[in-house]
Design brief:
Radius of gyration of chain B: 20 Å
Oligomer: heterodimer
Strand order of the largest sheet of chain A: 1-2
Structural class of chain A: mainly alpha
Shape of chain A: flat
Helix content of chain A: 55-70%
Largest interface: A-B, 28 and 38 residues
Shape of chain B: globular
Number of strands of chain A: 2
CATH architecture of the domain at 35-65 and 77-228 in chain B: 3-Layer(aba) Sandwich
CATH superfamily of the domain at 35-65 and 77-228 in chain B: P-loop containing nucleotide triphosphate hydrolases
Number of strands of chain B: 10
Structural class of chain B: alpha/beta
Number of domains of chain A: 2
Radius of gyration of chain A: 24 Å
Distance between the termini of chain A: 44 Å
Chain lengths: 271, 281
């Protein structure tokens, strides 16, 4: 049931991108996503694609593995494409019954598809090359200025990392409860949606109870190990920028500058 | 190391609206002393108050009456809580609910991080603690991939990394298979013998208790019996009256003795029984 979830999966290998400071990767992903919305021509998307391809090369993650992750959004992609294809007004190219495909619609839906695919691949590249722990560390460090406005940054990061730690444990537990219910005649296979929803209740109640019990135990175990919030805490793996991280930031600035230029130069041969 | 004087702990019962409706006396007038470096076992059936007692040693619960001193520190003093928790580490029953890190080494580093130990020193402590429990080669693994016994040894390493004087283990082997159980107890024994760390082991496996220096048997919130393993396990009927078993060998020897064989009481191991039987001939 939960085998298909590939969200935030980490691909273990050694590469330049894996070793990069996670803060650079988060900032880089944000810059990359913004750049996808800055450029609006096919040439612009080509630049983004080149950048992405270079990053994939640096990541040592097999291209097939990344593309396979795209299957999850295939339906979403097809729906957005068809809506844009058929519903954009403009110069009619083909007419099938009451449906019409316009020139503008065709271009727009193509751009949309490219943009969406690049966006998903780009952001999944970040999670593929960064462990969840590094991600939470980086988020804590990047959000640090917000502490001045009394945002509990450390607590948020700690919550995220504990949540990630408990995902596999709770999944295992769900599986166990499900098997126990099936052994007593529960029906989880029903195709009927309402029946399916109803069968989830006896699954969720014990799951929630056990999750609360675990939370209680964990809180006590953390207190027993002197946890008292972020104040006065040291780090086992502090984040320190190195030469390659600075180089990466420079590269990002250059990349973004190119994207902005492409948008505002409005060269006549670009569509 | 630990001194408990006339300790009483009441749990407050609440009705459905959350109003206090009565109290349950979980610990009733307990006094005991633990010398530094001892290996102590606490036995007792479910609900005898042994977990409640354990939580007092770590300032997770506070006395209703009486007092607990850990290495001379009074647990009633709120300012000393963190020193006490550092002095007396705690290992709980369920390994999954006490491992915080997603990588073994990060979990072991959690305690020292909380104490504000400098980064380089944390790495030293993590290395030495993982080596002490024989889990060093698993340091980069995810805790989810380890067996129960391995997870529990990681939990122990997480406590050792805080350099405690005493480790309280609250049924650390209850959820483990026999080989995991042996690994955990051996790790605890090694720490006790080689590092001189005081160990307080709460268990209901009698085989684990026979290696202790001293045993406390709890019943209904009171210390019902105390003494060396040999003293405790030679009182077979008393133990059975408290719904506790004695080791199988001890029981066998006891039954043989009742049937008229001349062997001593309080036999704890198979070797001792064999020797006694051969000596009798």
């Amino acid at each position: 049931m939960f085998k298909d979830i590939t969200l935030g999966q980490y691909y273990q290998t050694d590469s330049l991108l894996h070793r990069l400071d996670p803060r650079v990767k988060i900032v880089g992903t944000l810059v990359y996503i913004i750049s996808l919305f800055v450029v609006d021509t096919f040439a612009g998307y080509f630049v983004c694609l080149l950048f992405l391809a270079a990053m994939i090369c640096l990541s040592n993650v097999p291209v097939g593995y990344i593309v396979r992750g795209m299957r999850a959004i295939l339906i979403l992609l097809l729906i957005t494409m068809s809506f844009n294809l058929f519903l954009t007004p403009g110069e009619v190219l083909v007419r099938i019954g009451f449906l019409k495909i316009t020139r503008e619609g065709l271009i727009f839906s193509l751009k949309m598809a490219i943009r969406l695919s690049l966006l998903v691949i780009g952001s999944s590249l970040m999670t593929l090359t960064t462990t969840p722990n590094q991600l939470t560390d980086a988020i804590e460090s990047l959000l640090n200025p917000l502490k001045r406005f009394r945002v509990p940054v450390h607590e948020i990061a700690m919550m995220m990392s504990i949540a990630l730690r408990f995902i596999p444990i709770l999944m295992e537990e769900t599986d166990k409860i499900m098997k126990a219910q099936i052994a007593r005649g529960a029906d989880f296979e029903s195709k009927n949606l309402i029946k399916k929803m109803k069968s989830l209740v006896p699954l969720l109640v014990p799951l929630f109870i056990s999750a609360f019990r675990r939370a209680n135990d964990l809180a006590m175990a953390m207190e027993a190990r002197c946890y008292r919030g972020g104040v006065g805490r040291t780090k086992m793996k502090p984040l320190i920028y190195e030469g390659r991280d600075q180089a990466a930031y420079m590269l990002l600035v250059a990349y973004f500058a190119i994207c902005v230029l492409l948008r505002f130069l409005r060269l006549p041969f670009l569509i | 190391m630990i001194k408990i004087s006339r300790l009483i702990h009441d749990y407050i019962q609440r009705d459905e609206e959350g109003n206090p409706s009565g109290t349950i006396r979980a610990l009733d007038d307990i006094s005991l002393d633990v010398e530094p470096g001892q290996f102590i076992a606490i036995l007792g059936h479910n609900g005898s108050g042994k977990s409640t007692l354990a939580k007092h040693l770590n300032a997770l619960l506070f006395p209703t009456e009486g007092a607990v001193w850990v290495n001379g520190l009074d647990t009633r003093d709120q300012n000393l809580i963190w020193d006490i928790r550092q002095t007396a580490g705690m290992v709980f029953q369920n390994p999954d609910n006490q491992i915080i890190g997603q990588v073994v080494e990060e979990d072991v580093g959690f305690g020292p991080e909380n104490m504000g130990v400098p980064t380089q020193e944390i790495w030293n402590r993590v290395e030495e603690s993982l080596k002490a429990v024989g889990m060093y080669e698993y340091r980069k693994k995810s805790p989810n991939r380890l067996s129960g016994g391995q997870k529990q040894r990681v939990s122990i390493a997480g406590v050792i990394a805080m350099h405690p004087r005493c480790i309280v283990m609250d049924e650390p082997t209850a959820m483990l298979d026999p080989s995991g159980r042996a690994d955990v107890i051996n790790a605890a024994m090694t720490l006790n013998r080689e590092e001189g760390i005081t160990i307080i082991l709460i268990t209901h496996y009698m085989e684990e208790a026979i290696r202790a220096d001293r045993i406390f048997v709890m019943d209904e919130g009171k210390v019902a019996m105390q003494g060396t393993p040999r003293e405790i396990f030679s009182r077979v009927e008393e133990m059975q009256a408290l719904h506790l078993d004695v080791p199988q060998v001890t029981l066998l020897a006891h039954t043989l003795r009742q049937r008229g064989l001349s062997i001593p009481e309080g036999i704890l191991t198979r070797e001792e029984l064999a020797e006694a039987l051969l000596g009798g001939n």
